[in-house]
Amino acid sequence: MRLTERILLIGSGEPDWAPTDPIDSQVYLVETPDGHVVVDAGAGATVPAMVEAARRDGVDPDRVSWVLLTHGHADHAGGAAAWRRSLPNVRIAAAPEVTGWLAAGDETATSVDRARRAGIYPPTYKLEPCEPDRELVAETPFAVGDVTFQVVPTPGHAVGHLSFLTVLDGVRTLFSGDALFPQGRILLQDTWDCDLHDALRSVERLAALGAERLLAGHLGPVLADAPTHLAAATARIGRLLVPESLA
Predict the structure, then answer these.
(1) CA-to-CA dists, residue 75 to 14, 27, 46, 79, 182, angstroms
(2) Cα–Cα distance for residue pair 159/138, rounded to 1 Å
(3) With 90 as the cut, is the pLDDT of residue 171 above it?
(4) 11 CB contacts (<8 Å, ≥6 apart)?
């Protein structure tokens, strides 16, 4: 599903937005003249369907050069190994903490074990190990072709969570993963690395970036008026309240 001139939504767990698998996060593709960038990998089983979705929208998937992971939860990172199998030139990048967990297939550090017991993932789901090619350093820009991603540390939902800000089609575009969702929502879970205060500071950090588009890890993309959604979250924080929850 083409969202803008250079952004595609190729995978989703949302029934109304390019659905692939209910346990997939939103998976975006950004076109650049020197290789395309995928933001988040999905859970794994439907990567071939994502590749074909890109092809149907006029993108040569063999030109995908990077998959950037916002964090290590399996709906976002579990598909990394499948992307590497599916495309010859793809490389995987994530925060330093996530690279180690993913390389080891560590289901405790990534909370896959907890999520599976909770019924979020099916009983047969396993995190496939995949050693990323590059560590993303917070506040160090990551450039592909004419697109530069600002790497924004946004812990709270999970340790090692990153968001990515870039300018596409002349518009400041924020890929927020699970740090912030449309309507100013956040997601707190009973996992070892979820921290309320870190989550609130991350929301404030994102709100200060001046993004005009908000492309989150779940729910539909916000292609205009992102400040309204960001303000809904910061307004509650300003009243010493927690932003509304996704779940």
Answers:
(1) 12, 10, 11, 8, 18
(2) 13
(3) yes
(4) 18, 20, 21, 24, 25, 26, 27, 42, 46, 47, 49, 50, 53
* Residue 227: predicted pLDDT: 97
* CATH for the stretch 7-238: 3.60.15.10
Q: Which tens digits make up the pLDDT trace of 20-37?
A: 999 999 999 999 999 999
Domain limits, the chain? 7-238
Q: Which amino acid is at 95?
A: A
Q: Using one digit for the tens of pLDDT, what is the confidence trace for 101-153? A: 999 999 999 999 999 999 999 999 999 999 999 999 998 999 999 999 999 99
Contact (CB, 8 A) for 68 and 93: yes
Q: At what angle do helices 196-207 and 226-238 cross, to 10 degrees?
A: 140
Distance, CA of 245 to CA of 125 (rounded, Å): 26
